[in-house]
Design a protein that fits this description.
The chain is α/β, with parallel strands linked by helices. The chain is built from 8 helices and 10 strands. This is Nucleotide-binding universal stress UspA family protein.
Length: 289
C-alpha cells in the first residue's frame, strides 16, 4: 500500500488547496496522517523582500495585511479538513521566499514530508517561466514525490497506471506503481518510445525488458507497448488518453539555464477537469544495465 504520513499541501488559491486536501484524505489513513498546509509569500528579489519586511511603514501596510489574509485562508482550509475527517492532524505555516531562497524545501525536509499534493497551475508562458515552480522544485531538489491533480481527480479511483521507461530501469517509479496498483487493484501499462535515429535504442529496449521482468517477479504482469517516434510529453499524454489512464509517473524536468517560452510541462497539457493524476518522482541514482 502507498502509505503517506506527512503530506504537504501548498496553499495559494483556497479552492485549489481544498481539492489537494480532499485528494490527500482519499489517499491516506486519516488517523495516521498529518497534512501540512503551507502558504508562501513570494518576493521577486531579495531587495523587494527587504523593502516590504524591514521598513516599518511598508511592513504594516503590506506584509502584516498579507499574512492576516493568508491566515484566514489557512484556518478556513483547516476547518474544512476537520469537518471531513476529524481524526486527521493538520499544521499550518506561512513561509517567505525569494527567487534564490529555498525556505519551503528546508521546511519540507525538516517535517519529513513524503508526498506533496498540488493542483494543476495555469499554463505558464512568456516571462512567467522565470517564476519558481514550487512543486517542480520540491520534486527535483528535495527528492519528494509530487502528485498533481485537478478537481476531476476527486472521488476517482486509480485503476490504470502508465509507467514510461527511458534509458534506465526506473526503480522508484516501479516501487510507487506497484504500491498504487496494490492499493487500488490497478493495472500497470508499461511503455517506451523508440526513435530510429536515437543511438540509445538498445539501451532503452534492455531497460524496458528488465522493468517488465521486475514487475512480473513482483506479482504484477503489466500490459506493455512500444511506441515509435520521438520521446515527448505530448505522445505520453496521448497514449494515456487512449488507454483511459488515471495516473502517469514522470521524472521532474531538468533545470534549464534559459526557459523554453513556448513549451510547457506535462502538467500544462492536462485539461482543467481531467481525472489524470501526474506523479512526479526524481529517479534513484542510475545503475548500469
Amino acid at each position: 500500500m502507498a502509505t503517506f504520513k506527512n503530506i504537504l499541501i501548498p496553499v495559494d488559491s483556497l479552492y485549489n488547496a481544498q481539492i489537494a486536501a480532499e485528494k490527500a484524505l482519499e489517499l491516506a489513513d486519516s488517523a495516521d496522517t498529518t497534512l501540512f498546509l503551507v502558504a508562501t509569500i513570494r518576493f521577486d528579489s531579495l531587495s523587494q523582500k527587504l523593502l516590504y519586511t524591514s521598513i516599518p511603514f511598508q511592513k504594516k501596510t503590506y506584509l502584516e495585511r498579507k499574512e492576516a489574509f493568508i491566515l484566514k485562508k489557512l484556518e478556513a482550509l483547516k476547518e474544512r479538513i476537520h469537518r471531513i475527517s476529524s481524526l486527521t492532524k493538520t499544521e499550518t505555516m506561512i513561509i517567505t521566499e525569494t527567487t534564490i531562497s529555498d525556505n519551503l524545501l528546508l521546511y519540507a525536509q525538516d517535517k519529513n514530508i513524503d508526498l506533496v499534493i498540488a493542483t494543476k497551475e495555469k499554463y505558464r508562458q512568456g516571462f512567467s517561466f522565470f517564476r519558481k515552480d514550487i512543486a517542480e522544485d520540491l520534486a527535483r531538489k528535495a527528492n519528494l514525490a509530487v502528485l498533481t491533480v485537478t478537481k476531476g481527480c476527486l472521488n476517482h479511483p486509480i485503476k490504470t497506471i502508465v509507467l514510461p521507461v527511458t534509458s534506465f530501469v526506473p526503480e522508484r517509479k516501479i516501487e510507487m506503481a506497484l504500491a498504487f496498483a496494490r492499493q487500488f487493484n490497478a493495472h500497470i501499462h508499461l511503455i517506451t518510445m523508440l526513435d530510429n535515429n536515437d543511438i540509445s535504442t538498445k539501451i532503452r529496449i534492455d531497460a524496458f525488458y528488465l522493468t517488465y521482468k521486475i514487475l512480473a517477479e513482483s506479482g504484477h504482469s503489466p500490459q506493455y507497448k512500444i511506441l515509435h517516434g520521438s520521446d515527448s510529453d505530448s505522445a505520453l499524454v496521448r497514449y494515456a488518453n487512449q488507454v483511459k489512464a488515471d495516473m502517469i509517473l514522470v521524472n521532474p524536468e531538468k533545470k534549464k539555464i534559459l526557459p523554453v517560452f513556448f513549451h510547457g510541462k506535462i502538467t500544462d497539457m492536462i485539461q482543467p477537469f481531467s481525472a489524470l493524476h501526474i506523479l512526479t518522482l526524481k529517479p534513484y541514482l542510475r545503475r548500469s544495465i
